[in-house]
Specification:
The chain has a four-stranded mixed sheet, sandwiched between helices. The protein is an alpha+beta fold and about 120 residues long. The longest helix is centred in the N-terminal third of the chain and has 12 residues. It has one domain: Glutaredoxin (3-Layer(aba) Sandwich).
Length: about 120
């Protein structure tokens, strides 16, 4: 049974594995840019700001990954590392913490709507 599960996982992940082949193409650039736009939300299910953030992104049809820090405690250190690298104090921040393609956004704006707008604005313009 373990061998069967391992085989299925291996087959499913095989297309994403690189064997040292590199090629520069427009599709690779587009794929990379899409990956950089990935949104990760660190929070918990009882935080109303976290729930509202997830609802907002869902209504805007923006995909995201949500890590409930009460369940995924291993993600706490990951979040702290990202906060430190961004120069954000780890002693005074609020959840949700959002990683938008490498840019860390915390709810430290005057209004929550301003925070939400930062999640949907295109920083490249």
């Amino acid at each position: 049974m373990k061998a069967l599960i391992f085989s299925i996982v291996f087959i499913l992940t095989l297309p994403t594995v690189s064997f040292g082949q590199t090629s520069a193409s427009v599709t690779d650039d587009v794929y990379t840019k899409k990956e950089l736009k990935k949104i990760i939300i660190y929070g918990n299910r009882t935080c109303h700001y976290c729930v509202d953030t997830k609802t907002y992104l869902t209504k805007k049809r923006i995909s995201f990954v949500f890590y409930d820090l009460d369940i995924h405690s291993e993600k706490i250190e990951e979040m702290y590392v990202k906060l430190r690298k961004s120069g954000i104090s780890t002693s005074n921040f609020q959840i949700p913490v959002v990683d938008k393609g490498g840019k860390i956004i915390t709810n430290n704006y005057k209004t929550f709507d301003e925070f939400l707008s930062k999640l949907t604005t295109d920083d490249e313009k």
